[in-house]
Specification:
The structure holds two protein chains of two kinds. By secondary structure, chain A is an alpha+beta fold. Chain A contains four helices and seven strands, in the order βαββαβαβαββ. Chain A has helices spanning 25-40, 74-83, 113-127, 145-150; strands at residues 7-10, 45-50, 55-69, 91-104, 135-141, 154-155, 165-171. Chain B has two helices and no strands. Classes of the chains: A alpha+beta, B mainly alpha.
Amino acid sequence: MNIVDFELIRLTKDHEFKSFDCKDKDLNEFLLNDSKNFLVDLVAVTYLLESDNDIVAFFSLSNDRISAEDFESNNKWRKFRAKSISSSKRLKSYPAVKIGRLAVSHDYKKNHIGTSILDYIKELFMDNNLTGCKFITVDAYNDSLTFYEKNGFKYLTDEDNGKDTRAMYFDLLPLDS
Amino acid sequence: MAKPIKETPILRGKDAVKFNQEMEKSKSEIIPKAIRERMKSNYSLLKSIAKF
């Protein structure tokens, strides 16, 4: 397998899907049933890595943000917590791009294609950051958590621990050094 | 229909403190040269086959 034998294309409304099976029914359904609707609704854009005969992998991107209470120090957090003040006016938001879904065909597993795609997305927003993007976020399936951890992603919260997907993020800033 | 893509949660309390601390740490984080080169190489490869 050589990645230069494939094509990376942007999904269009009239695209005819080649065969794809990542052995996860939900991800297969997302590609075949939802990805075009997300495109039409301007919610997410899906990209396909294709060989001559099948879809090797796909990923969907959308705009996102990370919003967090802004504390200058832990002392401020303790005072804040003690007073139980509403935090709605103290949120700080950072621009991000979200990987809604990413999947690799079962036939192409163990070739580090998922890591290559993550590297591509990270570098894409460093090389051509048209509007400002500080983080990559992902709604990660449970069986992919280790994969994202190995690629430098961190968990946003522990509250989704044990759920079917978990929110993770990657900080692009260190790539700028 | 596949399960919906979840919204990224708004971080409050301990989650917000941890996130802000991690963001501060990342300012001085240095990615190993080998990993950075791999990332750039993968980017170039996929960029070279991109049809958009």
